[in-house]
């Protein structure tokens, strides 16, 4: 049995029951178990996706336990702009732990690995899901360099042309992390600057209404950015 990895933050109590992988990281509840018994952080279990959003109360994506009235999404800033997420939300402390401990979220130069995945999953979607659940929308596969914690009271699952997406509710709080700590306004601005071309390209393909909607969404997002610190 692996020991908890040195240097990681203290685990919230709900995550203490999660098994550890061979590198000492907790294996989130959503991670699927493949036919050979292995568990790959990149592959989420479609049955658990459905359970997370359909159960009452809804279940935390990280620990699998019931949540209260407030839920927190872990996402990049582009998700904040269009208010959509591929993944269900978490308890706030579980989400904060993910933002501070997940290698992909804490290492800005980390890239999403696709090597070694089952061929049918690689061909199907960027965010592999077992059990015939397809996350819809258009994935932006880059590492945004910052993690956004979007806390709200409600969300809706929406069917789109290529699967399902989650519409995040109006936030009561938005927090930002980079490299396992609170992100600066400059880091968040840079992530938005480098991520917007992907959203703008999609809007350009869809036409004038989509471009106007994106512009309005960008303006709306300004209220939730961290306060800039004067030099």
Structure in words:
This protein is of the alpha+beta class. The protein has one domain. The protein is 31% helix and 20% strand. It contains 7 helices and 10 strands. The strands form 3 sheets. The protein has a 4-stranded antiparallel sheet with strand order 3-6-9-10. Strands 1-2-5 form a 3-stranded mixed sheet. A hairpin with a 2-residue loop joins strand 9 and strand 10. The longest helix is centred in the last third of the chain and has 22 residues, at 185-206. It starts with 30 loop residues before the first strand and ends in a 10-residue tail after the last helix. Residues 110-114 and 120-128 have low confidence and may be disordered.
Main beta sheet strand tally, sense and closure: 4 strands, antiparallel
The CA-CA distance between the termini, in Å, is 48 Å
Mean pLDDT: 87
Number of domains: 1
Spatial extent as radius of gyration:
17 Å
Query: Tell me, what's the shape?
Result: globular
Task: Enumerate how many helices there are, as a single number.
Answer: 7
Order of helices and strands: EEHEHEHHHEEEEEEHH
Structural class: alpha+beta
Give the tally of β-strands: 10
| Residue runs with pLDDT of under 50 for 5 or more positions | 110-114, 120-128
Helix coverage percent: 25-40%
